[in-house]
């Protein structure tokens, strides 16, 4: 069950580097094969570089009586991410300059980080500020911030073609449910389904990266290959909360990824919203940047920063559920099955209707038919009518009001009878580009 996995992962202190990322990936790797790749501090990634590695052992603030007012052991959000090692007695004024709260959410511990400027800090509930009445405090941060490695997790399932479907999620937020763990949990469940399914047309690549810097690093190493291989992709995040779905389009807006996701959402009967790509959000910003413009969108439920608990300790187990996670897993599976089934055909019988009964594709007898027979006849006749070498199965399914994957079997039957011929999309695209 996904929530059992959630309970193991939630307490781990994750950041953009460090042992928390490795431990999280090892736990996820118990369900699916995930290869850990390490990149040294200073490795360039376009305008960025891999930062120092950060690991924490202990961090706390004590008052003048030796009472711990803030303890990293109680909640790892209490320590600002990437806080440098520090030990000393500080005045109340100095401590206040290093304390972070959310006055608008007085019972929440905010999530703060300082990845690229060395600093230290603590985060507490705003309502607790009244506890800090002493003139001085002991601050202790036992942490390492030194040259090391950034860790990326990668999984791969080969298919019949080298064309890839990319699924990417992030593992860099400590103890948050929607904005961190829901993505890796859903992606891992989809990965497990595909590994068990087998018989894949596309190859599948699964990335578990620190948000922003991890995607940039991967693109700097593999971006040119991805431009030629990725047929569709999705950033998997914010997948466990809310009644409706949100799909954020790729920057291009009309890619196969967009087409399949919007089609499946439309046919699902679930409430959903479509939003245009914008340069704010998750790693679709990097995959869709101008130098790559990959066909990558993002299927979510409640979007990041669209719920009040975002980036606080209130983004916890109470906000997500097994049911919501599994429903999102199924939505991704439906999209993938539609991508797997989708093909473009041309009808080889163009003079009138072909006689279907002699090919076993139409009942010899008239009269009442079952709903299943009616659906199959509708699928076959529409495939013959609209397979013109330009419309794919998703296009035809839209006319019928069904999910594209349901047309896969009748299309194969028509192909086997010599009535349809599959279009080699690569040859077609090449011919079109040469004409252009």
From TrEMBL:
Chain ranges of the DUF2172 domain: 53-143
Q: Give every UCP01524 winged helix-turn-helix domain span.
A: 344-421
Q: Which Pfam families match?
A: DUF2172, DUF4910, HTH_47
Task: Output the Gene3D superfamilies linked to this UniProt entry.
Answer: 3.50.30.90, Winged helix-like DNA-binding domain superfamily/Winged helix DNA-binding domain, Zn peptidases
Tell me the ranges covered by the DUF4910 domain, including all copies: 4-342
InterPro entries in UniProt: DUF2172, DUF4910, UCP015244, UCP01524_HTH, WH-like_DNA-bd_sf
Q: Which organism is it from?
A: Cohnella soli
Its recorded name reads: DUF4910 domain-containing protein
């Amino acid at each position: 069950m996904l929530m059992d996995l959630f309970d193991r992962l939630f307490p781990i202190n994750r950041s953009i580097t460090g042992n928390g990322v490795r431990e999280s990936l090892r736990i996820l790797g118990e369900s699916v094969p995930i290869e850990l790749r390490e990149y040294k501090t200073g490795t360039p990634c376009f305008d960025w570089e891999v930062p120092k590695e950060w690991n924490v052992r202990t961090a706390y603030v004590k008052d003048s009586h030796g009472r711990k007012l803030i303890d990293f052991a109680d909640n790892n959000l209490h320590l600002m991410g990437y806080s440098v090692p520090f030990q000393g007695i500080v005045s109340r004024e100095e401590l206040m300059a290093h304390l972070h709260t959310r006055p608008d959410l007085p019972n929440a511990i905010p999530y703060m980080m300082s990845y690229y400027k060395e600093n230290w800090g603590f985060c507490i509930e705003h309502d607790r500020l009244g506890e800090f009445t002493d003139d001085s405090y002991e601050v202790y941060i036992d942490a390492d911030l030194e040259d090391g490695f950034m860790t990326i997790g990668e999984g791969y399932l080969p298919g019949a073609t080298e064309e890839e479907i990319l699924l990417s999620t992030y593992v860099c937020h400590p103890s948050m449910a929607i904005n961190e763990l829901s993505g890796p949990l859903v992606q891992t469940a989809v990965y497990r389904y595909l590994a068990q399914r087998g018989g894949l047309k596309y190859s599948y690549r699964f990335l578990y990266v620190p948000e922003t810097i991890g995607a940039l690093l991967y693109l700097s190493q593999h971006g040119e290959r991805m431009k030629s291989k990725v047929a569709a992709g999705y950033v998997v995040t914010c997948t466990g909360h809310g009644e409706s779905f949100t799909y954020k389009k790729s920057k291009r807006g009309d890619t196969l990824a967009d087409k399949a996701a919007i089609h499946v959402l439309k046919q699902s009967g679930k409430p959903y919203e479509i939003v245009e790509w914008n340069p704010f959000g998750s790693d679709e910003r990097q995959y869709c940047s101008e130098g790559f413009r990959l066909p990558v969108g993002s299927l979510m439920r409640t979007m990041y920063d669209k719920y009040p608990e975002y980036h606080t300790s209130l983004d916890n187990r109470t906000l997500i559920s097994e049911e919501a996670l599994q429903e999102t897993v199924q939505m991704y599976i439906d999209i993938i099955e539609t991508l797997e089934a989708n093909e473009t055909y041309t009808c080889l019988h163009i003079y009138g209707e072909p006689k279907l009964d002699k090919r076993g594709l139409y009942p010899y007898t008239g009269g009442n038919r079952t709903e299943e027979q009616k659906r199959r006849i509708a699928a076959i006749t529409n495939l013959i009518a609209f397979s013109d070498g330009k419309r794919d199965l998703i296009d035809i399914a839209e006319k019928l009001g069904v999910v594209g994957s349901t047309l896969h079997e009748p299309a194969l039957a028509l192909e086997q009878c010599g009535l349809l011929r599959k279009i080699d999309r690569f040859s077609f695209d090449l011919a079109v580009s040469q004409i252009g």
